[in-house]
Amino acid sequence: MENIMLEVSARHVHLTQEQVEILFGEGHQLTVKKELSQPGQFAAEERVTVVGPKKTFENVAVLGPVRDHAQVEFAKSDCYALGIMGEIRESGDIENTPGVELKTEHGSLTLDKGLIIAKRHIHMTPEDAENFGVKDKDIVSVKVETDGRPLIFGETVIRVSPKFKLAMHIDTDEANACNAANGGNPTVTIIK
User: Fold this and answer.
1) Residues 89-146: tens digit of each pLDDT
2) Which stretches of the chain are assigned E, i.e. beta strand?
3) What are phi and psi of 102, to 5 degrees?
4) pTM score, two decimals?
5) Domains, the chain, ranges and CATH?
6) CB–CB of 30/66 below 8 Å?
């Protein structure tokens, strides 16, 4: 069975087109800096400052393409430093989450919701899901074996779409816990 690629998701922001124009100027379009592993997704050249009551994070990545709603994804340790605790949620589930202020040299805006700690998940195609014996929204445990710090992650969401590429996404706190932040080629095994 194919090994699942493990990717570490650092803090980043998703914006609507209207918010892109507020922060970067009227008519502005996000500029592709680097294609990401999920088809059609990219890291943009554009960066924002995320302002909290305790700390300000500068140079935070913006990911594209634009979405229907804004979302700010931080690790829990980032939220502690920021002074606003995000909710552990799946991407897109932003109701009843805290907001945060975003700034650039061109403009600023305050989101009324959208700060989340992304729930760990595995992207799969329908064929991958069949091969692994899982379905969309299943919750599984996953063993990640790295040099010196193997770890079992529970509560991992399976996300299935023909638009996805097989990959597990964890945040920087989780990557540090299993020593995956230093690269290498970890082995990822689903244990139901």
Assistant:
1) 999 999 999 999 999 999 999 999 999 999 999 999 999 999 999 999 999 999 999 8
2) 5-9, 12-14, 32-35, 42-51, 56-64, 71-73, 87-89, 101-103, 108-110, 115-118, 121-124, 139-145, 151-160, 167-171, 187-191
3) -115, 140
4) 0.93
5) 10-118 (no CATH), 121-191 (2.40.40)
6) yes
DSSP assigned state of 96 = T
Q: Give the span between the Cα atoms of 147 and 187, in whole angstroms.
A: 10
Residue 191 to residue 171: CA distance in whole angstroms: 20
- Give residue 79's identity as a one-letter amino acid code: C
What strands lie across the sheet with 121-124, from one edge to the other?
5-9, 167-171, 121-124, 151-160, 139-145, 187-191
* Structure-token pair, residue 115: 């700060």
CA dist 71 → 1, 59, 126 (Å): 34, 16, 26
166, 153 Cβ separation under 8 angstroms? no
Residue 123 and residue 132: Cα distance in Å, rounded? Answer: 12
In the block, residue with structure tokens 């990401």: 36
Looking up tokens 């009843």 gives 96
Strands 101-103 and 5-9: unpaired
